[in-house]
Amino acid sequence: MELLVASAIGTLTAGGVYLLLRLRTFPVILGLALLSYAVNVFLFASGRLAIDMSPILSKYGDASYTDPLPQALVLTAIVISFGMTAVLVMIGLGAFLEAESDRIDIDPSEDREDKTKDGDA
Hints:
Blueprint: H1 2-20, H2 25-46, H3 69-99, H4 108-120
Helix pairs in contact: 1-2, 2-3
């Protein structure tokens, strides 16, 4: 089971890094989402899987219980990553509507030079 979770975290991280290195806005946003999923799975796996244990201390003095902290961290991270993704989508959409391209490496001075060369010809 640990090998499966570790390979899932590695695959999500590798896919996220690969998509972050693309030159378009949408794959970069997807890459950030994949990286946040990898962090969420890592945080959730750090709490260890406890089967048939209560999530809180019982009044009968049972000392074995699951740790609720990783679950709370993952829930918080999901909310934060959703908000971050929504903001990035809006920023990317605004940049696309302004520049008429979703490329990340656009240099405005190169666009002006290309337009003046086309106008002179």
